[in-house]
Amino acid sequence: MQIGMVGLGRMGFNMSLRLMRAGLKVAAFDRSFERAEELAKQGATPARTLGDLVHVLGAPRVVWLMIPAGRPVDDAIEELLPLLSKVDLVVDGGNSNFRDSQRRAARLAGAGIQFLDCGTSGGIWGLENGYCMMLGGEAAAIAMLKPALDALAPPEGWRHVGPSGAGHFSKMVHNGIEYGLMQSYAEGFEILKASEFPYDLAALAGLWNRGSVVRSWLLELAEDAFERDPGLEKIRGWVDDSGEGRWTIEEAIRESVPAELLTLALMSRFRSRQEDSFRDRVIAALRNEFGGHAVKER
User: Whole-prediction pTM value?
Assistant: First the structure.
């Protein structure tokens, strides 16, 4: 089987390597041709344009997108549409909004082209450990893609979860849960660090991963981070969000689901990007006004 991989960032590049290690052929395109050339050293066929990529793929063609959500995906699909034939398959493995995936599936179906939305989790560790993949779309397209899915995932690490949009919806909620898990660990470790006890946070994280009810891979990663930088003094507490957390909360509101913890975790990310916020200055001023509490001058 041959896969045309579009987007050779941290995920797309490593996924291509894992596919090739399993004996599948990969043709690769990235806006930076140097990335495709780098992957070519590992056995991939580099392409300078999407047209070149489609040209080297055997029918039925499989084009797997690992590019940023939103306009880049729409642009790629519009460019691919006149190049592809009926029964060819486009897979969106990025973190697209599920409603966009439903729209794109209908757009491609009108041209007889198959589409799968594939929520992909695994990060930079996926190359060695495999990727967890949640797929939305038609069963026939899943069957067509099965050799690649088996190559990319660990045993039982991929699943057809429903119709178009279901893959990206489940990945969206997955990432919303991830926000809450990380927030819980972060708050707990901050309490430990602020306490009177001289905890070795790396050692404690390691201990909790041996039989504790809070053991997890995230806790393993916390242990690694604390071992490298016990006080996390080399990084800023500035936390970005890539959209999935926001979409999760939007859907919770739409469905009247009280997702309090996930909402607060998202708000905490917004808070992390503020330095000396006006809101906090208002609170300080009010405390000073009604109670004479000290304020710190800027």
Answer: 0.90
Instruction: Specify the pLDDT at position 52.
Output: 96
| Contact (CB, 8 A) for 230 and 189 | no
pLDDT of residue 22: 97
Read off the pLDDT of residues 263-290 as tens digits, 9 standing for 90 and up.
Answer: 999 998 888 888 877 777 777 887 787 7
pLDDT over 90 (residue 215)? yes
Residues acting as catalytic residues: 171, 178
Tell me the H-state helices in the chain: 10-21, 33-40, 50-56, 71-80, 98-109, 126-129, 139-152, 166-194, 201-208, 217-228, 244-254, 260-272, 278-291
Q: Are 48 and 27 in contact (CB under 8 A)?
A: no
From residue 18, alpha-carbon distances to 21, 40, 73, 89, 145 in Å are 5, 14, 23, 20, 15
CA atoms of 202 and 193, how far apart (whole Å):
12
Q: Cα dist. 256→86, 175, 178 in Å?
A: 41, 19, 21
Instruction: Classify 44 as helix, strand or coil.
Output: coil
User: What does the alpha-carbon distance between residue 120 and residue 158 come to, in Å, rounded to a whole number?
Assistant: 9
Check if the beta carbon of residue 93 is closer than 8 Å to that of residue 62: no
- What DSSP state is assigned to residue 132? E
Q: At what angle do helices 98-109 and 71-80 cross, to 10 degrees?
A: 10
Q: How many CA atoms lie within 13 A of 229 on its CB side?
A: 7
- Contact predicate 133/119, CB 8 Å: yes
Q: Is 63 helix (H, G, I), strand (E, B) or coil?
A: strand
* CA separation for the pair 68, 237 (Å, rounded): 24
**C-alpha span between 74 and 298 (Å, rounded):** 47
Of the candidates 131, 185, 197, 172, the residue with the CA atom closest to the CA atom of residue 259: 172
50 — pLDDT class (breaks 50, 70, 90): very high
Integer Rg of the chain from CA: 23
